[in-house]
Write a structure and sequence with these properties.
Radius of gyration: 17 Å
Number of helices: 10
Order of helices and strands: HHHHHHHHHH
Mean pLDDT: 84
CATH topology of the largest domain: Butyryl-CoA Dehydrogenase, subunit A, domain 3
CATH architecture of the largest domain: Up-down Bundle
Low-confidence stretches: none
CATH superfamily of the largest domain: PhyR, sigma-like (SL) domain
Oligomer: single chain
Number of domains: 2
């Protein structure tokens, strides 16, 4: 089913909207959640919560890119759940590795606080737009979707060494750009 048809179901307040959302994007949302939580049950709960939040948000809003909208909801819910679980000494996985890698670029000591800055978001968007498409996709897979190096390697067809090297160089470019901008 096309995204617009699914969105129409949300606007009609039809419960079929959730069924169709899960059918089309369930696996995708689950992988976003699992990359953060590394736990099947917690990931499934995050996806369910994301569907509920989508139900409560649509209408009145109507996302332009439904897939990205769902990924954002799932990601935020999963990160919140990860924080709660981390406080209880659970969790970890790719989330810790990815945040540690990015933390070295901004050198703030707290990437969560820094990433909330509107100026930094503007700079990151400008940085990403300036990257070649392949490099940008690898960077986003790692730091937005929190994919493992192995998963990115399988997805792109690059060796794990090449992916690691590409990410290292891209973080270096990001670090240089942020340094020039005063971060």
């Amino acid at each position: 089913m096309e995204d617009q048809n699914i969105l129409d179901l949300y606007f009609q307040r039809s419960e079929q909207a959730i069924v169709e959302t899960d059918r089309k994007y369930g696996g995708y949302c689950y992988s976003v959640a699992y990359n953060i939580l590394s736990n099947r049950e917690d990931s499934e709960e995050s996806v369910s919560d994301a569907y509920l939040q989508a139900w409560n948000t649509i209408p009145p809003s109507c996302p332009n890119i439904f897939r990205a909208f769902l990924a954002k909801l799932t990601r935020h819910i999963s990160i919140d759940r990860w924080r709660k679980l981390s406080a209880q000494k659970r969790g970890g996985g790719e989330m810790i590795l990815a945040l540690d890698e990015l933390d070295a670029c901004a050198e703030t000591g707290n990437p969560e606080t820094t990433l909330q800055s509107k100026e930094l978001v503007r700079l990151l968007n400008r940085f990403l737009q300036g990257l070649p498409e392949v490099e940008r996709n690898v960077f986003l897979c790692r730091y937005w979707y929190l994919d493992s190096i192995q998963t990115i390697s399988q997805f792109t067809g690059f060796t794990e060494s090449k992916v690691t090297s590409m990410l290292h160089r891209t973080r270096g470019k990001l670090r240089k750009m942020l340094s020039q901008e005063g971060y």
